[in-house]
Amino acid sequence: MSGLTESQVASFRENGYLVIPDYLTQAEIEALLAETNTLLNDFSLDSHPLTQFTTGDDDQADHVGDDYFLNSGDKIRFFFEPDAFTSEPDPLTGRAALIKPKHLAVNKIGHSLHTLSPPFKSVSLNKQNAAVARSLGFKDPRVLQSMVICKQPSIGGAVPTHRDSEFLYTNPPSAVGWWYALQDAGPGNGTLGMWKGSHKGRKGGHIARRFVRKADNKGTEFIENDSASLPKGMEEEKASEPTDKDLEILNVKAGSLVLIHGNVLHKSEKNTSPRSRYAYTFHVIEGADEWEYDKRNWLQPPEAGFSRLYQ
Asked: What pLDDT, on the 0 to 100 scale, is given for residue 89?
């Protein structure tokens, strides 16, 4: 199985991301969409804590601090859009109530689809992705945090600017995101916005903060990063902030794969369109001994460790 070409690797190194069209077959797209719809339709609300997903960049940060979220690394769980609820709690239950059917209210499904769902496992832990990881120089790539991001029509929330290694920190940073468009993603329905070259030290690409569990293990917070801020081999240079001229709003066709450097600055806007924007994503980190996965990261490894990509 061949990996990336030299020109693709060079583009990824230069820009911090790479779009690979037609990475999934039409049959794979259809299988993943069917599985997603089955999951959305079949899960029960009876004992669901109605956890809403936010990144912690606003006053709702504690919504991603409950046990349902923190213990989801080896499970399939469902997280709701904040805008899918009433503004006031139900007087009988004391909880906010959904104003959308549940299958149109979910922000994301995660975080171990790559181990627990056969269709998602088949497009995650395979020789093709192993070849791509080798092209990028991984020694012992490990797969984690797999999820479907739904970006529901009209309520799919914005994801503010961030760098993925802030959330899945290794010392030194090593994360790369695999982001598959299951539906067309473009301007208007919450596609990705990428700042070209913003992963480089001279472009402000340092990991300056980290998203971690609180000391009491009852919530999440951002803290200052006082360890390595750039991947191995990347030069420490005086940092400058990326500008709007560096921002590219991607237009990604269903079936495409977007590789995302863990230090590149990116975002997605709210989905204001009447069409959803389903995407499947997971991350790969370096599992070799020279890299340490931080014990305060919000997602901690299961007993057997994170999934190996090289078999």
From this structure: 76
- The CA distance from 77 to 71, in Å, is 10
Nearest CA among 37, 34, 116 for reference residue 75: 116
Tokens of 262: 């863990």
**What is the number of alpha carbons within 13 Å of residue 21 lying toward its C-beta?**
5
Per residue in 3-39, pLDDT (tens digit) is: 999 999 999 999 999 999 999 999 999 999 999 999 9
187, 270 Cβ separation under 8 angstroms: no
pLDDT value for 239? 65
Sequence-ordered alpha helix ranges (H) in 63-183: 67-70, 113-116, 118-124, 127-135
pLDDT in tens, 63-72: 456 889 999 9
Task: Tell me what percent of the chain is helix, strand and coil, each rounded to the nearest 5.
Answer: 25, 25, 50
Give domain limits for the chain. Answer: 6-308
Closest CA to 55 of 65, 45, 47, 44: 65
Query: What is the pLDDT confidence band of residue 93, given thresholds at 50, 70 and 90?
Result: confident
32: which residues sit within 8 A by CB, 6+ positions away?
24, 119, 120, 123, 180, 182, 280
Options 2.60.120.620, 3.40.50.2000, 1.10.3720.10, 1.20.1250.20; CATH for 6-308 is 2.60.120.620
Residues 168, 301, 17, CA angle at the centre, nearest 5°? 30
State the pLDDT at residue 56.
53
Q: What per-residue confidence (pLDDT) applies to 61?
A: 44
